[in-house]
Amino acid sequence: MNGGAPYAGNYWLLNLYSGNADARVTNNGKLVAQESVTLLGPQVVNSGTTQAKDFTLSAANGAAILINERFEPAGHRVILGKQAQNALVANYGVLAANGGDVQLSTFATGAMLGTVIQNTGRIEATSASAQEGGTISLTAMDGGKMTGGGRLSVDNGISIRSEGQFGGILSPSGTVLDPAIARAGVYSAPSTHDVTVEADARLQSQRSISISLRTAVISR
After folding, report:
1. Which long-range contacts (CB under 8 A, 24 or more apart) does 7-11 make?
2. pTM for this prediction
3. DSSP-assigned letter for residue 22
4. Tens digits of per-residue pLDDT, 55-74?
5. I need a labelling partner for 180 at 20 to 30 A (CA). Which of 28, 77, 133, 150 fits?
């Protein structure tokens, strides 16, 4: 974890592949950071209170962080790896992003838990300016139901979507593959699932709200 390893020129790589599809990363306390808070694992649950500029909560059986302090807005980019049948990203607490963005994402089959992204808590994202920050993105890749409840409040846009497509670049052994190479050799049948906004949910955006399904078939 000491700086990672060189990857793709300006990037440094932290390969967080664990090989354990049953582990969970849970926050029940209070996390405060000036820049970003990132929770990664096969299952990720926030039940506490977190305050930062940017948030990333991602679930997959394997993940990597590409670090580029110069070009990436938050200094790093999360890449989801191998699918996890019991992947889950859940927010039952408070995510407060001041001047940045909130991203919740999974790369899952959705076969075990059914629901892979769930929000019953509060997510707030305020923009630093009209062109920067203030968005919330909930994305399920390759399956699993999504339920949007609680309170979502942003200055810019809210995006909730389920995508049926291959999206990882980590092999089962944790080897990092180039995204173009990984996608060229994988067939991914459409596997989107329901996206539901609960009756008691409150989504508020000063600009836009997008709720969608998207499928893609990728082959040689």
Report:
1. 7/66, 7/176, 8/66, 10/68, 10/70, 10/71, 11/66, 11/67, 11/68
2. 0.77
3. T
4. 889 888 777 777 765 545 55
5. 133
